[in-house]
Design brief:
Blueprint (H helix, E strand, L loop, with lengths): L1 E7 H10 L1 E2 L2 H6 L2 E2 L6 H8 L6 E7 L7 E5 L5 E5 L3 E2 L3 E7 L8
Antiparallel strand pairs: 1-4, 2-7, 3-6, 4-8, 5-6
Length: 105
């Protein structure tokens, strides 16, 4: 199963160097926020409206070193949460966000 984590390009670069992505929420909430693929656009609109350097990390849950729990958020939707850092080896694709439609620049 694939899940998605939105982060800034600099965070992804640091994760590649260390081997693990440690989002701030891991320290404050105990998990890394993720979305199902169909939830990403709404998540980006809610939390990253003015961001210009986002990437969407496509994560294969079977490759994660840490467990994923699907939990109900304040808005009533169920979101995947990774309970530990995300190992870079579980990231199977990285998409610049927002993705360009039709391949244009």
């Amino acid at each position: 199963m694939r899940i998605v984590h939105l982060c800034f390009a600099g965070e992804w670069k640091s994760a590649q160097e260390s081997g693990y992505l440690r989002a701030a929420s891991l320290q404050t909430e105990g998990f890394v926020h993720c979305s199902a693929p169909e939830q990403v656009a709404a998540t980006a609109g809610r939390y990253f409206q003015d961001a210009t350097d986002l990437v969407a990390l496509q994560i294969e849950t079977d490759l994660l070193d840490n467990p994923v729990k699907h939990e109900v958020a304040a808005n009533g939707e169920v979101y995947p949460h990774v309970y530990g850092p995300i190992n870079v080896s579980a990231v199977v694709d990285v998409v610049v966000w927002p993705p360009k439609i039709g391949g244009g620049s």
